[in-house]
Specification:
Blueprint (H helix, E strand, L loop, with lengths): L4 H4 L7 H11 L6 H24 L2 H13 L10 H25 L4 H24 L5 H11 L2 H11 L6 H8 L3 H25 L5 H9 L3 H23 L7 H17 L11 H12 L7
Helix pairs in contact: 2-3, 3-5, 3-8, 4-6, 6-7, 7-10, 8-13, 10-12, 10-13, 11-12, 12-13
Length: 299
């Protein structure tokens, strides 16, 4: 990845290897190498933008950035502060490059879909930034209705599909645009697993209350009971996703499998804490095993 944002945005997390590990988890099949590359790009961009919204930007700056993403016009970056201009241009160019390649290779314009997905993410991230700025703790339902979008599972899954070497039908594109239940369930599992693994550390560094804290605030439950409730929601959502995966749908098999695998890799990354934002020994061992150390084959 040649963007070099990790060097420019010194306050943001640089997690390129971990981002690629997400790609391996979502599309592990050998023939989907380009999907893994595009997923890694998308997640690295998401990580940096997440840090901008959570840690660095003021509400006023974030409103300008969100408006620029929603307008999807390079001229919109004129009003942005300098550090945001490079973020915006990196996002704009990376997404448009994927859209250009897809149009050239498959004759399908995915720009409106990608623009909507990234725009919805930025709007959801802005809502959370305003909650934090105002010291507001939402109800669990209010939080989850926004947070399943801010976790960007749909962006990851759509990117995996668009980058794969297969035809994109009009029906599949419309289905993604409308956020089908399968993608919702996959994103919700990612969100809840992320919250279980990261909420304590993220609140300490300055972030909106997560699902655990929202449930505690709403019900008066202990943290242990709140975590148990969130694990129950994950189990219930898995059942719904399994049902959706075998129902009649215009979604291609790749996207269905990727949605299921996103849930699996989410459980893997956050099994022992924040295996992405603060890579633990397990994440490092998995990266070394899959990407660095040679596989020994007995003759």
């Amino acid at each position: 990845m040649k963007l070099g944002l990790g060097k420019q945005m010194t306050f943001a997390r640089d997690r390129l290897l971990e981002s690629f590990l997400w790609g391996i988890g979502v599309t592990p099949e050998p023939e989907f190498g380009r999907s893994r590359e595009e997923i890694a790009k998308a997640i690295q961009l998401i990580t940096i933008l997440d840090d901008v919204y959570d840690l660095y930007g003021t509400v006023e700056e974030l409103e300008l950035f969100t408006d620029a993403v929603d307008r999807w016009d390079v001229r919109a970056m004129e009003k942005l502060p300098e550090y945001m201009k490079i973020c915006y241009l990196a996002l704009f160019n990376t997404v448009n490059e994927l859209a250009y390649d897809t149009l050239k290779e498959k004759g399908c314009d995915i720009t409106p879909c990608l623009r909507k997905l990234w725009g919805d993410f930025s709007k959801a991230a802005l809502v959370e930034a305003k909650w934090y700025s105002n010291g507001y703790t939402p109800t669990l339902d209010e939080y989850l209705n926004n947070a399943w979008i801010s976790i960007t599972g749909t962006i990851v899954l759509a990117t995996a599909f668009f980058a794969a070497n297969m035809k994109i039908t009009k029906e599949a594109l419309e289905c993604i645009n409308n956020y089908p239940n399968l993608l919702y369930c996959s994103s919700m599992i990612l969100r809840l697993c992320d919250d279980l693994g990261t909420s304590t550390a993220e609140i300490e560094r300055g972030d909106v209350p997560k699902s655990i804290q929202c449930y505690m605030h709403e019900t008066g439950a202990l943290e242990s009971d709140s975590r148990k409730h969130i694990r129950g929601l994950i189990s219930d959502t898995w059942k719904k996703m399994n049902k959706e995966s075998v129902s009649c749908s215009p979604l291609p098999e790749l996207l269905i499998n990727a949605a299921l695998d996103l849930g699996r890799i989410s459980l893997c990354f956050y099994q022992y804490g924040d295996g992405f934002g603060d890579p633990n020994m397990e994440t490092k061992e998995r990266i070394m095993s899959l990407l660095v150390e040679p596989i020994l084959v007995k003759e």
